[in-house]
User: Fold this.
Amino acid sequence: MTYDNFPAQLDFTRDIWSVSRLNRELSAVLQGSFPLLWVQGEVSNLARPASGHLYFSLKDQAAQLRCVMFRNKRLLASVTPSNGQQWLVRARLGFYEPRGDCQLIIEHAEPAGEGALRLALEALKKRLAAAGLFDAASKRALPRWPRQIGLITSASGAALHDVLTVLGRRWPLTPLLIYPAQVQGEGAAATLVAALECAAARADCDLLILARGGGSFEDLMAFNDEALVRAIHAVRIPIITGIGHEVDISLADLAADQRAATPSAAAECATPAQQEVRTRLLALHTRLTATTQARLQQARRLLTNSERHLRLLHPQVRLQQQTQRLDHLEQRLRQALERVLERRRQPLQPLQQRLIGAEQRRIERGRQRLIEASAALDARSPLATLARGYALVTQTDGRILTRQQQIQPGDTVKIRLADGQLRARVEARLSEE
Assistant:
Protein backbone atom coordinates (compact mmCIF):
# COMPACT_ATOMS: atom_id res chain seq x y z
CA MET A 1 0.00 0.00 0.00
CA THR A 2 1.24 3.46 -0.89
CA TYR A 3 0.12 6.87 0.15
CA ASP A 4 -0.93 7.48 -3.45
CA ASN A 5 -4.03 5.31 -2.88
CA PHE A 6 -5.49 7.55 -0.13
CA PRO A 7 -7.95 10.27 -1.15
CA ALA A 8 -6.59 13.72 -1.29
CA GLN A 9 -8.87 14.84 1.55
CA LEU A 10 -10.09 12.50 4.31
CA ASP A 11 -13.61 13.06 5.74
CA PHE A 12 -13.28 12.31 9.48
CA THR A 13 -16.95 13.25 10.14
CA ARG A 14 -18.28 9.89 8.77
CA ASP A 15 -19.14 7.08 11.29
CA ILE A 16 -18.23 4.02 9.26
CA TRP A 17 -19.57 0.70 10.72
CA SER A 18 -18.04 -2.68 10.15
CA VAL A 19 -20.32 -5.60 9.32
CA SER A 20 -19.48 -7.26 12.66
CA ARG A 21 -20.36 -4.13 14.57
CA LEU A 22 -23.68 -3.78 12.75
CA ASN A 23 -24.59 -7.42 13.37
CA ARG A 24 -23.78 -7.06 17.06
CA GLU A 25 -26.04 -4.03 17.32
CA LEU A 26 -28.83 -5.79 15.41
CA SER A 27 -28.51 -8.78 17.73
CA ALA A 28 -28.76 -6.56 20.82
CA VAL A 29 -31.78 -4.71 19.45
CA LEU A 30 -33.67 -7.87 18.47
CA GLN A 31 -32.98 -9.82 21.62
CA GLY A 32 -33.91 -6.91 23.87
CA SER A 33 -37.05 -5.83 22.05
CA PHE A 34 -39.19 -8.98 22.04
CA PRO A 35 -40.46 -11.16 24.91
CA LEU A 36 -40.95 -14.92 24.69
CA LEU A 37 -43.26 -15.56 21.74
CA TRP A 38 -45.67 -18.31 20.71
CA VAL A 39 -45.21 -18.93 16.99
CA GLN A 40 -47.06 -21.47 14.84
CA GLY A 41 -45.99 -22.74 11.42
CA GLU A 42 -45.05 -25.72 9.25
CA VAL A 43 -41.72 -27.44 9.90
CA SER A 44 -39.29 -27.61 6.94
CA ASN A 45 -35.57 -28.02 6.25
CA LEU A 46 -35.18 -30.09 9.44
CA ALA A 47 -31.53 -30.95 10.24
CA ARG A 48 -30.17 -33.11 13.10
CA PRO A 49 -26.36 -32.69 13.35
CA ALA A 50 -24.16 -34.77 15.66
CA SER A 51 -24.20 -31.98 18.27
CA GLY A 52 -27.77 -32.97 19.19
CA HIS A 53 -29.22 -29.58 18.26
CA LEU A 54 -32.17 -29.27 15.87
CA TYR A 55 -32.21 -26.77 13.01
CA PHE A 56 -35.34 -26.17 10.95
CA SER A 57 -37.58 -23.48 9.49
CA LEU A 58 -41.14 -22.50 10.34
CA LYS A 59 -43.12 -21.26 7.37
CA ASP A 60 -46.58 -20.21 6.37
CA GLN A 61 -48.00 -19.24 2.96
CA ALA A 62 -45.98 -16.01 2.72
CA ALA A 63 -42.77 -16.31 4.76
CA GLN A 64 -40.41 -18.52 6.70
CA LEU A 65 -38.09 -18.08 9.69
CA ARG A 66 -35.02 -20.06 10.74
CA CYS A 67 -35.23 -21.89 14.09
CA VAL A 68 -32.77 -23.61 16.40
CA MET A 69 -33.60 -25.95 19.32
CA PHE A 70 -30.55 -26.64 21.43
CA ARG A 71 -29.83 -30.10 22.75
CA ASN A 72 -30.84 -29.42 26.41
CA LYS A 73 -34.30 -28.25 25.31
CA ARG A 74 -34.70 -31.07 22.78
CA LEU A 75 -34.07 -33.69 25.46
CA LEU A 76 -36.95 -32.26 27.50
CA ALA A 77 -39.41 -32.45 24.59
CA SER A 78 -41.77 -35.45 24.60
CA VAL A 79 -41.84 -35.65 20.76
CA THR A 80 -39.57 -34.50 17.93
CA PRO A 81 -40.87 -32.42 15.01
CA SER A 82 -40.66 -33.67 11.43
CA ASN A 83 -40.95 -31.95 8.06
CA GLY A 84 -44.46 -31.02 7.04
CA GLN A 85 -45.95 -30.95 10.55
CA GLN A 86 -47.70 -27.94 12.02
CA TRP A 87 -45.95 -27.01 15.26
CA LEU A 88 -46.46 -24.42 17.99
CA VAL A 89 -43.23 -23.20 19.55
CA ARG A 90 -42.41 -20.91 22.44
CA ALA A 91 -39.23 -19.06 21.57
CA ARG A 92 -37.20 -15.91 21.91
CA LEU A 93 -35.99 -13.93 18.93
CA GLY A 94 -32.24 -14.11 18.28
CA PHE A 95 -29.71 -13.04 15.68
CA TYR A 96 -26.92 -15.27 14.35
CA GLU A 97 -24.15 -12.74 13.82
CA PRO A 98 -21.74 -14.73 11.60
CA ARG A 99 -24.37 -15.10 8.84
CA GLY A 100 -26.53 -12.13 9.70
CA ASP A 101 -29.60 -14.36 10.08
CA CYS A 102 -32.60 -13.65 12.29
CA GLN A 103 -33.75 -16.85 14.03
CA LEU A 104 -36.03 -18.26 16.71
CA ILE A 105 -34.34 -19.94 19.68
CA ILE A 106 -36.84 -22.60 20.72
CA GLU A 107 -37.60 -23.12 24.42
CA HIS A 108 -40.63 -25.42 23.99
CA ALA A 109 -42.27 -27.12 21.01
CA GLU A 110 -45.46 -29.16 20.59
CA PRO A 111 -47.90 -30.12 17.83
CA ALA A 112 -50.08 -27.15 16.91
CA GLY A 113 -53.49 -28.67 17.68
CA GLU A 114 -52.59 -29.65 21.24
CA GLY A 115 -50.67 -26.42 21.65
CA ALA A 116 -53.76 -24.29 21.09
CA LEU A 117 -55.58 -26.35 23.64
CA ARG A 118 -52.72 -25.90 26.10
CA LEU A 119 -52.75 -22.15 25.55
CA ALA A 120 -56.42 -21.99 26.42
CA LEU A 121 -55.81 -24.21 29.42
CA GLU A 122 -52.97 -22.00 30.59
CA ALA A 123 -55.18 -18.92 30.37
CA LEU A 124 -57.91 -20.69 32.37
CA LYS A 125 -55.36 -21.77 34.95
CA LYS A 126 -54.15 -18.20 35.45
CA ARG A 127 -57.71 -16.91 35.78
CA LEU A 128 -58.69 -19.54 38.35
CA ALA A 129 -55.46 -19.00 40.26
CA ALA A 130 -56.16 -15.27 40.40
CA ALA A 131 -59.59 -16.10 41.84
CA GLY A 132 -57.90 -17.98 44.70
CA LEU A 133 -59.10 -21.48 43.77
CA PHE A 134 -55.59 -22.95 44.10
CA ASP A 135 -54.50 -21.11 47.26
CA ALA A 136 -52.75 -23.28 49.82
CA ALA A 137 -54.58 -21.46 52.62
CA SER A 138 -57.90 -22.89 51.43
CA LYS A 139 -56.70 -26.51 51.48
CA ARG A 140 -58.53 -28.74 53.98
CA ALA A 141 -56.71 -31.17 56.22
CA LEU A 142 -57.26 -34.87 55.53
CA PRO A 143 -58.79 -36.94 58.33
CA ARG A 144 -56.30 -39.30 59.90
CA TRP A 145 -58.88 -42.02 60.48
CA PRO A 146 -61.64 -41.63 57.86
CA ARG A 147 -64.99 -43.17 58.87
CA GLN A 148 -66.14 -43.60 55.25
CA ILE A 149 -64.47 -42.78 51.94
CA GLY A 150 -66.29 -41.71 48.81
CA LEU A 151 -64.80 -42.66 45.41
CA ILE A 152 -65.76 -40.68 42.30
CA THR A 153 -64.66 -42.59 39.21
CA SER A 154 -65.87 -44.79 36.39
CA ALA A 155 -67.69 -47.88 37.61
CA SER A 156 -65.95 -49.97 34.94
CA GLY A 157 -62.48 -48.39 34.99
CA ALA A 158 -59.20 -49.73 36.30
CA ALA A 159 -59.08 -46.95 38.92
CA LEU A 160 -61.90 -48.59 40.89
CA HIS A 161 -60.06 -51.91 41.01
CA ASP A 162 -56.80 -50.24 42.05
CA VAL A 163 -58.44 -48.30 44.89
CA LEU A 164 -60.30 -51.38 46.17
CA THR A 165 -57.09 -53.40 46.13
CA VAL A 166 -55.12 -50.82 48.09
CA LEU A 167 -57.89 -50.21 50.64
CA GLY A 168 -58.32 -53.93 51.21
CA ARG A 169 -54.63 -54.30 51.84
CA ARG A 170 -54.00 -51.17 53.91
CA TRP A 171 -57.18 -50.46 55.87
CA PRO A 172 -60.21 -52.69 55.18
CA LEU A 173 -62.07 -51.27 58.20
CA THR A 174 -63.13 -48.12 56.31
CA PRO A 175 -66.24 -48.50 54.11
CA LEU A 176 -65.99 -47.30 50.50
CA LEU A 177 -68.97 -45.58 48.87
CA ILE A 178 -68.76 -45.35 45.05
CA TYR A 179 -70.19 -42.40 43.12
CA PRO A 180 -69.99 -43.53 39.46
CA ALA A 181 -69.18 -40.90 36.85
CA GLN A 182 -67.91 -40.60 33.30
CA VAL A 183 -64.22 -39.72 33.32
CA GLN A 184 -63.55 -39.22 29.59
CA GLY A 185 -65.22 -37.82 26.54
CA GLU A 186 -68.08 -35.41 25.91
CA GLY A 187 -70.18 -34.74 29.01
CA ALA A 188 -67.65 -36.31 31.36
CA ALA A 189 -67.05 -33.08 33.29
CA ALA A 190 -70.79 -32.65 33.93
CA THR A 191 -71.10 -36.17 35.38
CA LEU A 192 -68.07 -35.57 37.59
CA VAL A 193 -69.60 -32.35 38.90
CA ALA A 194 -72.93 -34.09 39.52
CA ALA A 195 -71.25 -36.92 41.45
CA LEU A 196 -69.25 -34.43 43.49
CA GLU A 197 -72.34 -32.38 44.34
CA CYS A 198 -74.24 -35.54 45.28
CA ALA A 199 -71.45 -36.58 47.66
CA ALA A 200 -71.38 -33.10 49.19
CA ALA A 201 -75.18 -33.07 49.65
CA ARG A 202 -75.29 -36.50 51.30
CA ALA A 203 -72.30 -35.69 53.52
CA ASP A 204 -71.97 -39.35 54.55
CA CYS A 205 -68.24 -39.45 53.78
CA ASP A 206 -65.49 -37.52 55.50
CA LEU A 207 -63.04 -37.97 52.60
CA LEU A 208 -63.47 -38.09 48.81
CA ILE A 209 -61.18 -39.55 46.13
CA LEU A 210 -61.49 -38.29 42.56
CA ALA A 211 -59.66 -40.79 40.36
CA ARG A 212 -59.14 -42.21 36.89
CA GLY A 213 -56.44 -44.17 35.09
CA GLY A 214 -53.86 -42.74 32.74
CA GLY A 215 -54.57 -41.28 29.31
CA SER A 216 -53.54 -38.74 26.75
CA PHE A 217 -53.72 -35.01 27.22
CA GLU A 218 -57.08 -34.88 25.45
CA ASP A 219 -58.41 -37.79 27.52
CA LEU A 220 -57.82 -35.83 30.71
CA MET A 221 -59.54 -32.62 29.59
CA ALA A 222 -62.61 -33.39 31.68
CA PHE A 223 -60.47 -32.79 34.78
CA ASN A 224 -59.52 -29.35 33.46
CA ASP A 225 -63.13 -28.19 33.31
CA GLU A 226 -63.80 -24.90 35.11
CA ALA A 227 -67.10 -26.08 36.59
CA LEU A 228 -65.38 -29.14 38.09
CA VAL A 229 -62.57 -27.02 39.55
CA ARG A 230 -65.07 -24.66 41.19
CA ALA A 231 -67.09 -27.59 42.53
CA ILE A 232 -63.96 -29.10 44.10
CA HIS A 233 -63.14 -25.78 45.73
CA ALA A 234 -66.70 -25.36 47.04
CA VAL A 235 -67.06 -28.80 48.63
CA ARG A 236 -66.30 -28.80 52.36
CA ILE A 237 -65.26 -32.46 52.37
CA PRO A 238 -61.48 -32.97 51.85
CA ILE A 239 -60.67 -34.28 48.35
CA ILE A 240 -57.72 -36.30 47.05
CA THR A 241 -57.17 -36.55 43.29
CA GLY A 242 -55.58 -39.65 41.81
CA ILE A 243 -55.44 -38.97 38.08
CA GLY A 244 -52.94 -41.32 36.52
CA HIS A 245 -50.90 -38.97 34.37
CA GLU A 246 -47.39 -38.15 35.51
CA VAL A 247 -46.57 -35.55 32.84
CA ASP A 248 -49.49 -33.15 33.13
CA ILE A 249 -51.09 -31.84 36.32
CA SER A 250 -54.78 -31.12 35.80
CA LEU A 251 -56.61 -28.13 37.20
CA ALA A 252 -58.57 -30.54 39.38
CA ASP A 253 -55.26 -31.61 40.93
CA LEU A 254 -54.46 -28.00 41.73
CA ALA A 255 -57.85 -27.36 43.32
CA ALA A 256 -57.89 -30.56 45.39
CA ASP A 257 -56.68 -30.65 48.97
CA GLN A 258 -54.03 -33.23 48.03
CA ARG A 259 -52.81 -34.69 44.75
CA ALA A 260 -51.63 -38.25 44.23
CA ALA A 261 -49.94 -39.49 41.07
CA THR A 262 -52.24 -42.52 40.62
CA PRO A 263 -55.50 -43.90 42.02
CA SER A 264 -53.50 -46.41 44.06
CA ALA A 265 -51.39 -43.60 45.52
CA ALA A 266 -54.57 -41.68 46.35
CA ALA A 267 -55.91 -44.70 48.26
CA GLU A 268 -52.63 -44.88 50.18
CA CYS A 269 -52.85 -41.19 51.07
CA ALA A 270 -56.44 -41.64 52.25
CA THR A 271 -55.86 -44.46 54.72
CA PRO A 272 -53.33 -45.55 57.30
CA ALA A 273 -51.47 -48.81 56.73
CA GLN A 274 -52.85 -51.45 59.06
CA GLN A 275 -49.47 -53.11 59.45
CA GLU A 276 -47.91 -49.81 60.47
CA VAL A 277 -50.79 -49.14 62.84
CA ARG A 278 -50.47 -52.63 64.31
CA THR A 279 -46.73 -52.15 64.77
CA ARG A 280 -47.32 -48.77 66.34
CA LEU A 281 -49.99 -50.14 68.67
CA LEU A 282 -47.72 -53.00 69.73
CA ALA A 283 -44.94 -50.53 70.45
CA LEU A 284 -47.32 -48.32 72.44
CA HIS A 285 -48.62 -51.36 74.31
CA THR A 286 -45.08 -52.36 75.22
CA ARG A 287 -44.24 -48.85 76.35
CA LEU A 288 -47.49 -48.58 78.31
CA THR A 289 -46.89 -51.93 80.03
CA ALA A 290 -43.32 -51.03 80.94
CA THR A 291 -44.34 -47.59 82.15
CA THR A 292 -47.22 -48.99 84.20
CA GLN A 293 -44.99 -51.58 85.84
CA ALA A 294 -42.38 -48.96 86.64
CA ARG A 295 -45.01 -46.68 88.13
CA LEU A 296 -46.44 -49.55 90.20
CA GLN A 297 -43.01 -50.43 91.55
CA GLN A 298 -42.39 -46.83 92.40
CA ALA A 299 -45.77 -46.63 94.14
CA ARG A 300 -45.01 -49.78 96.14
CA ARG A 301 -41.68 -48.35 97.31
CA LEU A 302 -43.35 -45.11 98.24
CA LEU A 303 -46.08 -46.96 100.16
CA THR A 304 -43.53 -49.04 102.07
CA ASN A 305 -41.54 -45.96 103.02
CA SER A 306 -44.70 -44.16 104.06
CA GLU A 307 -45.77 -47.03 106.31
CA ARG A 308 -42.35 -47.06 107.99
CA HIS A 309 -42.45 -43.32 108.53
CA LEU A 310 -45.98 -43.53 109.90
CA ARG A 311 -44.93 -46.13 112.44
CA LEU A 312 -41.96 -44.02 113.51
CA LEU A 313 -43.98 -40.83 113.54
CA HIS A 314 -47.21 -42.04 115.16
CA PRO A 315 -49.32 -39.07 116.32
CA GLN A 316 -49.44 -40.30 119.96
CA VAL A 317 -45.65 -40.63 120.09
CA ARG A 318 -45.20 -37.26 118.49
CA LEU A 319 -47.69 -35.73 120.92
CA GLN A 320 -45.93 -37.16 123.98
CA GLN A 321 -42.58 -35.93 122.74
CA GLN A 322 -43.95 -32.48 122.05
CA THR A 323 -45.63 -32.37 125.50
CA GLN A 324 -42.38 -33.21 127.29
CA ARG A 325 -40.51 -30.70 125.23
CA LEU A 326 -43.13 -28.05 126.05
CA ASP A 327 -42.84 -28.75 129.82
CA HIS A 328 -39.08 -28.51 129.62
CA LEU A 329 -39.25 -25.23 127.72
CA GLU A 330 -41.78 -23.83 130.20
CA GLN A 331 -39.50 -24.67 133.13
CA ARG A 332 -36.50 -23.12 131.43
CA LEU A 333 -38.53 -20.00 130.63
CA ARG A 334 -39.71 -19.62 134.27
CA GLN A 335 -36.16 -19.98 135.57
CA ALA A 336 -34.87 -17.54 133.03
CA LEU A 337 -37.52 -14.97 133.97
CA GLU A 338 -36.76 -15.31 137.66
CA ARG A 339 -33.06 -14.77 137.03
CA VAL A 340 -33.78 -11.73 134.88
CA LEU A 341 -36.14 -10.26 137.46
CA GLU A 342 -33.65 -10.83 140.25
CA ARG A 343 -30.88 -9.16 138.28
CA ARG A 344 -33.13 -6.22 137.49
CA ARG A 345 -34.51 -5.99 141.06
CA GLN A 346 -31.13 -5.55 142.82
CA PRO A 347 -30.08 -2.26 141.13
CA LEU A 348 -33.63 -0.90 141.44
CA GLN A 349 -33.92 -1.10 145.29
CA PRO A 350 -31.76 1.99 146.05
CA LEU A 351 -33.50 3.83 143.28
CA GLN A 352 -36.85 2.90 144.77
CA GLN A 353 -35.89 4.33 148.18
CA ARG A 354 -34.60 7.48 146.60
CA LEU A 355 -37.74 7.80 144.50
CA ILE A 356 -40.00 7.40 147.55
CA GLY A 357 -38.08 10.07 149.48
CA ALA A 358 -38.09 12.47 146.57
CA GLU A 359 -41.82 11.96 146.04
CA GLN A 360 -42.57 12.64 149.73
CA ARG A 361 -40.51 15.83 149.66
CA ARG A 362 -42.27 16.95 146.45
CA ILE A 363 -45.67 16.32 148.01
CA GLU A 364 -44.72 18.32 151.13
CA ARG A 365 -43.54 21.28 149.04
CA GLY A 366 -46.77 21.16 147.11
CA ARG A 367 -48.82 21.11 150.31
CA GLN A 368 -47.00 24.24 151.55
CA ARG A 369 -47.53 26.06 148.30
CA LEU A 370 -51.24 25.13 148.38
CA ILE A 371 -51.60 26.51 151.92
CA GLU A 372 -49.91 29.76 150.90
CA ALA A 373 -52.04 30.05 147.79
CA SER A 374 -55.24 29.45 149.76
CA ALA A 375 -54.32 32.18 152.23
CA ALA A 376 -53.60 34.60 149.42
CA LEU A 377 -56.82 33.67 147.71
CA ASP A 378 -58.81 34.21 150.87
CA ALA A 379 -57.20 37.62 151.29
CA ARG A 380 -58.30 38.63 147.83
CA SER A 381 -61.75 37.06 148.00
CA PRO A 382 -64.81 39.42 147.60
CA LEU A 383 -66.38 37.67 150.60
CA ALA A 384 -63.47 38.78 152.79
CA THR A 385 -64.01 42.34 151.60
CA LEU A 386 -67.71 42.15 152.45
CA ALA A 387 -66.82 40.82 155.90
CA ARG A 388 -64.89 44.05 156.56
CA GLY A 389 -68.12 46.14 156.17
CA TYR A 390 -68.39 46.61 152.47
CA ALA A 391 -71.49 45.79 150.32
CA LEU A 392 -72.00 44.91 146.66
CA VAL A 393 -74.91 46.82 144.99
CA THR A 394 -76.37 45.54 141.71
CA GLN A 395 -79.35 46.37 139.60
CA THR A 396 -82.12 43.84 139.26
CA ASP A 397 -80.56 42.54 136.00
CA GLY A 398 -77.30 41.79 137.81
CA ARG A 399 -75.23 44.77 136.62
CA ILE A 400 -72.90 46.15 139.35
CA LEU A 401 -73.52 49.80 140.34
CA THR A 402 -70.38 51.89 140.52
CA ARG A 403 -71.91 55.36 139.90
CA GLN A 404 -75.11 56.98 141.11
CA GLN A 405 -75.93 58.06 137.58
CA GLN A 406 -76.63 54.39 136.79
CA ILE A 407 -79.81 54.48 139.00
CA GLN A 408 -82.85 56.64 139.32
CA PRO A 409 -84.92 57.39 142.42
CA GLY A 410 -87.57 54.73 142.81
CA ASP A 411 -85.46 51.97 141.21
CA THR A 412 -85.04 48.70 143.04
CA VAL A 413 -81.51 47.42 143.74
CA LYS A 414 -79.91 44.35 145.34
CA ILE A 415 -77.42 44.70 148.18
CA ARG A 416 -74.99 41.80 148.88
CA LEU A 417 -73.64 41.70 152.44
CA ALA A 418 -71.27 39.23 154.07
CA ASP A 419 -74.08 37.13 155.48
CA GLY A 420 -76.83 37.57 152.82
CA GLN A 421 -78.68 39.85 150.40
CA LEU A 422 -81.14 42.77 150.67
CA ARG A 423 -83.64 44.29 148.25
CA ALA A 424 -84.00 48.10 148.59
CA ARG A 425 -85.69 50.97 146.81
CA VAL A 426 -83.72 54.18 146.04
CA GLU A 427 -85.47 57.26 147.32
CA ALA A 428 -82.97 59.88 146.20
CA ARG A 429 -79.49 60.43 144.89
CA LEU A 430 -77.31 62.34 147.35
CA SER A 431 -74.54 64.53 146.27
CA GLU A 432 -71.02 63.82 147.42
CA GLU A 433 -70.09 65.61 150.65
